[in-house]
From TrEMBL:
Domain PiggyBac transposable element-derived protein as annotated: residue spans: 92-226
Chain intervals with Acidic residues compositional bias: 26-37
Region of interest (Disordered), ranges: 1-53
Name the record gives this protein: PiggyBac transposable element-derived protein domain-containing protein
Organism: Synaphobranchus kaupii
Stored InterPro entries: PGBD (IPR029526)
Length: 250
């Protein structure tokens, strides 16, 4: 007959109870409240005996897979064409960024963002003054700048969005306020849209970002052809003689 473990679930109450006897209680007292008609009812459970082995993974286990062949038919690597494809003549940060988020893609974002903002302004009751009342149509350069600032926020971390415009000397980061006012950035964030819902396929779980997702996927395919044996793993990095920093190496 299976023995109940010290912690079991009472069938009727669903509450976890302890079946170990409390030393402060007498011989006739139990920690489990019994139903005088049905008696105590518990669900037996089992526990594995002995410690559970844990496989150790060391950074030295990572190695370059020179003979790696990806699954799937018809996939062949040609080292003569691997690497960056069609790099810009002037490889500035902006030009490299536009390799992935093209002017056409960002232009669609501009159009949909302006459309959504106008739609929301039309829903505002007459006489109501809010942040959106200050909205003016955005443009290509402003949306590119907005996306760059959003990426920069991933590097300069704050507790809230409003802290990026804080004048507190402890939190002050003047660069953000020099590019956008707080109200303008929050309005752009509020109205940022990628696709018109009237033209979206609601059966697609990514319907709100499908066009941008497809554009990014195609851009990565156009811009880089992988080599045969890339391996990504965490290995310890040594910086100025001090270890303990982990980095991703392709």
């Amino acid at each position: 007959m299976p023995q109940p473990c010290p912690e079991a679930v009472h069938k009727k109450s669903g509450v976890s109870v302890s079946l170990e006897r409390n030393p402060e209680l007498g011989e006739g007292d139990d920690d489990v409240e019994e139903n005088p008609e049905e008696g105590p009812s518990v669900v037996p459970c089992s526990r594995p005996e002995g410690p559970v082995p844990v496989e150790e993974v060391r950074s030295s286990d990572w190695r370059t897979a020179v003979d790696f062949t990806p699954p799937g038919p018809g996939i062949e690597f040609d080292s003569s064409i691997s690497g960056v494809q069609n790099p810009p003549e002037t490889p500035t940060a902006v030009n490299c960024f536009k390799m992935f988020l093209s002017v056409e893609t960002v232009g669609e974002i501009v159009e949909e963002t302006n459309r959504y903002a106008s739609e929301q302004q039309g829903k505002t009751a007459i006489g109501v003054i809010g942040k959106l009342s200050k909205w003016v149509p955005t443009c290509l350069n402003e949306v590119y700048t907005f996306l760059a600032i959003a990426l920069l926020m991933g590097l300069v971390r704050k507790s809230t969005l409003r802290e990026y415009w804080s004048t507190d000397p402890v939190l002050l980061t003047p660069f953000f306020a020099s590019v956008f006012s707080q109200d303008r950035f929050l309005n752009l964030l509020r109205c940022l849209h990628f696709v018109n819902p009237a033209h979206a396929d609601t059966r697609d779980p990514l319907n709100k970002i499908r066009n941008v997702f497809n554009a990014l996927t195609s851009a990565f395919k156009r811009s880089f052809i992988p080599y045969k044996g890339p391996v990504c793993g965490r290995i310890p990095d040594v910086v100025e003689g001090s270890s303990g920093i982990s980095a991703i190496y392709p």
